[in-house]
Amino acid sequence: MPRIYFKTADQYVEFAEGDEVNVLRVAIREDVDVPWRCASGNCGTDRLMVEEGAENLDPPRRRERARLGELVDEGYRLACQTYTRGDVTFSWNPDQVGLDDEPGDGDGAGSRTGWAGTG
Amino acid sequence: MYTVAGAGDSDLSPAPFNRNNSYNGNNADREHNLKRQEQSMAELMSSSEFRVAMEDAFSGTMAKDASFSRAWAAGKLHKQHFVHWATNHYHYIGPFGDYLGLMYANTPDHARDAKDFLLQNMYEEELSDDRHTDLLIRFAEACGGTREHVQDRNNAMPFAKGMQGWMYYVSGRENFVVSSAALIVGLESQVPSIYRAQYPTLINKYRFSEWEAEFFDLHITSDEIHGERGYQIVLKYADTPELQQRCLHFVREAADMRFAYTKALYQTYVEPDLGPWVEEDEREPALVG
Question: For residues B208-222, b (16+ Cβ closer than 10 Å) or e, as one string?
Fold first, then answer.
């Protein structure tokens, strides 16, 4: 069976072959501690770095592209907007907040990726 | 994970409709079966058993399988059919904030997570971004309709008004767990499966822009989460056999209502143009293609 590896939480979730599943829905259902807030592609709290398996994800649509901007090209996806049909590995910053809520955006105290010291 | 254990209750009611949208049996038989099954299941189900029972309760009557949805996904509809759909849908889901508000008022303070979910759902419907009904009207306008036509209640089918009345009834009169099962699990959680089949057709065949079709894109994803949270609330607070059974009853009823409403859209607006709906693989060879 294909599986999603939520690397930061060190949790695997398997799903049925042939299914396409929403990543945030899976995380909520299986109590994986992915940060999220609006689940509508507005806040960006649930942005995840795709470490492996990007080819198994559906392409980002308008809302996700608009919210993430260049982060899409850096390998980020919004969990709420993303479906997978195969193996994939995600990581994230457990303390990340919404893209509009980050302290010191642009002054070095925070970053759009949510990773301290990266991005 | 989605091969949940505890599916021993698979003798839930048979699907009342077949894939050609005709009824499989009479109401008396179905009611009899439901009563028998409910009597035999009058014990508290585990969380996993109850979830499977809810999923089974509407698996045979999902609106994605109704004729109007099938014709839409197959690219058979014309833009004026979409205007009729949007008009009726407006009167069905337009008061969704009202329904959620009634449910909120019926939810006790100790179920704070359920109250917060309803409030957040209401906020997302109305205020967090574009108002959802405005996105619906945007789509209708892209199909040649007008805001005035969509908002005029006289342009909606009796079925749409029936859906609206049923939702006001359930949200206002039933226990909040039961109304959550009906409106969130039975109706809202179906939305991604419907729109995921229809959205690619809108973009690829009809050449709507992503902006024009944003109503669908938004609901594909947001209702995944709403649906999942609805499941969690029902699983948590349906803590007696009676409440579980009433939830199952209303999940079935919600699915039946939406299926019948969706089927009526085809019969009312499409059948006069295209004839009765026949699945592609069941058409006469000369008619296929």
Answer: bebebbbbbbbbbbb
**Is the residue at B69 inside a domain?**
yes
A78 within domain boundaries: yes
Domain harbouring A82, CATH code = 3.10.20.30
Number of domains in chain B: 1
Structural domain boundaries enclosing A19: 3-91
* Contact residues on chain B for A36, CB-CB shorter than 8 A: 225
Print pLDDT tens along chain B (289 aa). Answer: 443 322 333 333 334 444 444 434 345 555 555 555 555 557 999 999 999 999 999 887 888 888 999 999 899 999 999 999 999 999 999 999 999 999 999 999 999 999 999 998 888 777 877 888 999 999 999 999 999 999 999 999 999 999 999 999 999 999 999 999 999 999 988 888 888 888 999 999 999 999 999 999 888 888 888 899 999 999 999 999 999 999 999 999 999 999 999 999 999 999 999 999 888 766 655 443 3
List the CATH number of the domain containing B163: 1.20.910.10
Indicate whether B287 belongs to any domain: no
Q: Closest chain A residue to B225 measured between Cα atoms? A: A25
Q: What strands, in cross-sheet order, belong to the sheet with A11-14?
A: A11-14, A3-6, A88-91, A47-52, A76-78
Structural domain for B163, as ranges: 57-275
The total of structural domains in chain A comes to 1
- Exposure string of A62-101, with b = 16+ CB inside 10 Å and e = fewer, is bbbbebbeebbeeebbbbbbbbbbebbbbebbeebbbbee
**Record: contact A22-B1, CB cut-off 8 A:** no
Is A4 near chain B, with CB under 8 Å?
no
Residue B171 lies in a domain: yes
pTM given for the model: 0.80
Query: Chain B: nearest CA to A81, how far in angstroms?
Result: 6
